[in-house]
Design a protein that fits this description.
- Helices cover 46% and strands 15% of the residues.
- With 318 residues, the chain is α/β, with parallel strands linked by helices.
- A hairpin with a 4-residue loop joins strand 3 (82-87) and strand 4 (92-97).
Length: 318
């Protein structure tokens, strides 16, 4: 990877995903930034906006182990983590590992499982380890969760707890494509009978675990200036002081944003961060961590609108 550079590697990954996904450039960019900052992404959008296909396509462009969990109301924590089963032949308990023991985990329709099941991901997402029957087991250093949820349906869904939401680096909201993109989707995807056959034919893995480790080492050397760090802190604290929000951004959000802006700088071919990196990532980093105040809800405000005003009102370092 050293002869390519992170920016070129990111461009190759985008090209591979684009073989199956029309548009969604911002979503792919955020997935790449999360990958190179060791973060996690929550994709939210109405049915049929390619949330799952996007996650699968992105995963297929990486030479990393992949697992998918379809979250349902009857899913139990043991179905995710695994369990110790008694082996009658050896008269001992043997661990059967669950699907969480992968490098890339797709948590599909995560809000369809109850909170106790969602909580099975908390330790894994924060510490990259899980505890089963008092035994702590390490996950891969490259472990990443891509979760999807549908904001329209309320029946049979469970809102994600604040502690769960706070572990996602980004929440990206997918919208419907424009007319030109939708025509391309119909022409391209309509020619194939299944999504799987299109993925099998088109997307190749272009990023190995070794290349990812090397890229993470390079991004760790990207400079985060004091001015940019101070800008991040001022944005975080501004969300707590704003009357529009009863709950502001957490200290963790500032740490994750700092890591993300370094990854964005590397993907844009720089070894230093700039305020534009922060402005580009502030909305997807903060939007899922903020709770509107009762007065703002009565006025019909939206989190994104109130947050955008804060971002624009906060002085940018020169």
């Amino acid at each position: 990877m050293s002869d390519l550079g992170i920016a070129d590697l990111g461009a190759r990954l985008k090209d591979e995903v684009a073989k199956a996904i029309v548009g969604q450039d911002e979503a792919v960019e955020l997935l790449l930034i999360a990958l190179f900052s060791r973060g996690h992404v929550l994709l939210e959008g109405p049915p049929g906006t390619a949330k799952t296909l996007l996650a699968r396509s992105f995963s297929r462009s990486l030479d990393l182990s992949f697992s998918r969990i379809q979250f349902t109301p009857d899913l139990m924590p043991g179905d995710i983590l695994g369990t110790n089963l008694f082996d009658f032949q050896s008269s001992t308990f043997r661990l059967t590992k669950g699907p969480i023991f992968a490098e890339m985990l797709l948590a599909d329709e995560i809000n369809r499982a109850p909170p106790k099941t969602q909580a099975a991901l908390l330790e894994a997402m924060q510490e990259r380890q899980v505890t089963i029957d008092a035994e702590t087991l390490k996950l891969s250093d490259h472990f990443m969760v891509i979760a999807t949820q549908n904001p329209i349906e309320s029946q049979g869904t469970y809102p994600l707890p604040e502690a769960q939401l706070d572990r996602f680096t980004f929440k990206h909201v997918l919208d419907y494509p424009d007319a030109e993109q939708e025509a391309d989707i119909v022409r391209q995807s309509g020619a194939s009978m299944t999504e799987s056959s299109a993925l099998d034919k088109q997307i190749s893995a272009v990023l190995t675990p070794g290349a990812l480790t090397e890229a993470l080492g390079q991004i760790a050397n990207v400079k985060l200036s004091d001015d940019v760090a101070d800008y991040i802190v001022r944005l975080v604290r501004a969300t707590r002081d704003a009357p529009s929000f009863s709950i502001g951004a957490s200290p963790r959000s500032g740490v994750l944003l700092a890591r993300a802006v370094r990854a964005r700088a590397g993907l844009h071919g720089r070894d230093y961060t700039i305020p534009d990196d922060v402005k580009a990532l502030a909305l997807p980093t903060f939007r899922h961590r903020l709770i509107l105040s009762p007065a703002a809800e009565v006025e019909g405000q939206r989190v994104d609108d109130a947050l955008s005003l804060i971002i624009e009102a906060t002085d940018v370092p020169r």
